[in-house]
Design brief:
The protein has 94 residues and is an alpha+beta fold. The protein is 38% helix and 21% strand.
Length: 94
């Protein structure tokens, strides 16, 4: 099993937004996120540094997402990567 990477706060917020959470308010340097269907709130530390694996694990646990679901939400779309990838040029010899 691979280890969960440290993520930037902006990435964590976007993962939770894809899962249906929204930013309710900010308190200091933390974003407080809520889901319309669940009563709990999830504080996300929004600093310049990456969110470490332990804190990230706690956020995922509070959100109710599994590690697999959260990794699927943060995985880049392979189709979009293929369209951006440089095309191979054929070599013409004279």
């Amino acid at each position: 099993m691979t280890r969960m990477p440290a993520l930037k706060p902006k990435e964590v917020v976007s993962i939770l937004e894809k899962a249906g959470y929204y930013i309710d308010h900010t308190t200091g340097s933390h974003y407080i996120m809520r889901h319309p269907d669940y009563p709990q709130r999830i504080p996300i530390p929004y600093h310049a540094k990456d969110i470490k694996r332990g804190v990230l694990h706690s956020i995922i646990k509070q959100s109710g997402l599994s590690k697999k679901e959260s990794s699927c939400l943060c995985a880049p779309n392979l189709k979009s990567l293929r369209s951006v990838a440089p095309k191979k040029h054929s070599v013409v010899s004279f």
